[in-house]
Amino acid sequence: MIRGARKQMIVIRTGNSQYFDEAYFVLRREMSDKKGDQTDILNEANRILSESGSDTLRRDKQKLWRWLFFGAGTVCGAAVAAVTTLLLLL
Fold this sequence. Notes:
Elements: E1 9-13, E2 22-26, H1 29-33, H2 38-89
Antiparallel strand pairs: 1-2
């Protein structure tokens, strides 16, 4: 431990994440000197956590759309092949 170094830290336990159990936020020196509102600090920490989790949701939605378009393309391709085959046989 370094002498004279004093940091304040917020620990948030996230029980709903599949990747993280806890998040650690180290306050800046300016904030540790001021007596800021604890709810503001916790709201900011929660905002950062929610923004970091949105990337996972965005990727999941992109995967879903990709599979939906793939399925729609496959069905359309099969329909065009069936119609073409029927027209050639008649």
